[in-house]
Amino acid sequence: MKLSAFEILQNSKVVAKLKQAWLDSEPNVSGGHEEGGFIVIDDLGFLSVVRWEKGTQNEIILPVHQNCSVGGRAIVASFHSHPNTGANFQQEPSLTDVRAIRDDAELKGEFYLGELVISQDNLYLIEPSGQIVVIGKTDEIFER
Ligand SMILES: [Zn+2]
To answer: Which residues, 6 or more positions from 79, have their beta carbon under 8 angstroms from its beta carbon?
Structure first.
């Protein structure tokens, strides 16, 4: 079953991991670095988060995710942060972000919702089609 963003964000452990990734990316006017990961589901329907290696200021590399899975678990979503809040930095998903999701043949699994992009103000979703949707206010989702 494909979960909606709303259903995924009802999972408090997943939300805590997203928040931790955001904090780990050291959000600031500049000097932050991207963090990200996969949200995966096991055969029993339990969600967990597999973090990626730390990224750079405006880039992060995905580990191998053949057939939209990692460690035998299906990827239901991926995420990365946009921690640099200064005016020189784009807060919303970039064209590069959109292309990376849309054109990744290994991110076309039947359960894959898309990539969440965590910014200071908004939580975005890049759908596999490349469409960008605002999921909600980051503050409200993280309850910070
Ligand atoms: Zn990005």
So the answer is: 18, 21, 36, 37, 39, 115, 116, 117, 118
